[in-house]
Amino acid sequence: MTSTATAPIDPIDPTDPIAAAAALGVGARVTLSVMADDYVRVITQAISAVETHDLEVDTDKVSTFVRGPEHRIAEYLRDLIGAASAHGHHVVATVMISRGCPGEVCGVVGPPQAPTPHLAPAGVPVQAQWSLYPLFDPDGGARPGDHLAPVWAAIERAKQAGTYLRSEHFATTLQGDLADVLVTMLDTWLAAAQATQHVVTHATIVANSPVASQDLR
Amino acid sequence: MTSTATAPIDPIDPTDPIAAAAALGVGARVTLSVMADDYVRVITQAISAVETHDLEVDTDKVSTFVRGPEHRIAEYLRDLIGAASAHGHHVVATVMISRGCPGEVCGVVGPPQAPTPHLAPAGVPVQAQWSLYPLFDPDGGARPGDHLAPVWAAIERAKQAGTYLRSEHFATTLQGDLADVLVTMLDTWLAAAQATQHVVTHATIVANSPVASQDLR
Hints:
disordered N terminus, homodimer, Alpha-Beta Plaits, 217 residues, eight-stranded antiparallel beta sheet
């Protein structure tokens, strides 16, 4: 689970953003679900329509793998989920974003230099259930009693960003424009990676839900 | 992210399986996506049809929370995803299962006593992308260099079980009957929890994919 690449990592070529992301283990997987009979057309059109410069994109039966700079991953996810949602169909996007373990054996990867991505609004209101997993610090691993400290800090950042709706068992529900929810995911993941090398974040993002918020929490 | 309950944990009542699961932080969240115009009917019928004895079940706009003994969670997931898949529609189930952090501050929770769940086949072939996160060991946290050791052990168990298809970036693809894939998820999660208290596993499970395996990996 992580790259199967075991070859020594070459020095990073600063002109190759995909190789740079690979050396840091930066990437994402996304599964789009469109709840309509014509889902194949909607999904394939969305995947085809999204700009992929500076990204490696590989779709299999379960998900699409995306590798590249953090801001390009953010833009890709916004544009892909936004395109699939533009028809008004109920859409669920299952997203994971990972950093800090570029191979089967995690070498030492420095903290992120990337600033928090800025994303123009998508115009797509969403709810998302989000979780953040700080996994590995080569300087000593998680400290007893505070392994969730980066998670509480992330929830505070979500509250400040205005995307926090409420805490759940095992997850936090975010709400807002798709772009703002993705920025919270990326921002808190990058912040956690300042202290913990290997950090993964997951979210289940829902657009165009038929359920009015007063009917179901 | 985790329970918001901060009250002291009461002694476990052995006759109350839901309270026992709550004290161990054992539970799951699942989101069903059905790619058909009549998805609301299919999903609500599946949720209504599944047997829920010994389980707490709470559905919100994004997911369904399930709490109870491990074997009942396994049966619930098999029956729910199986029911949604029975119509032949393309189904994506986003599943997370957690153990070992029953409140906002993780107390010390003992290793699982539960045996690996045995599940009768669902008759539903699936592919799943699966990941396992060993988060917290109160005896000292993840050891530098071996924080993924439980993950490699889990992949070995999946290979022995015959559900392993291949390794991916950030995930492992499993393939087989829905019941066997769920057993691999639960079995490896329980095995990892023998050494690491707080363990979370995620999977994106796909049934009735229109993509023939020779068309797309």
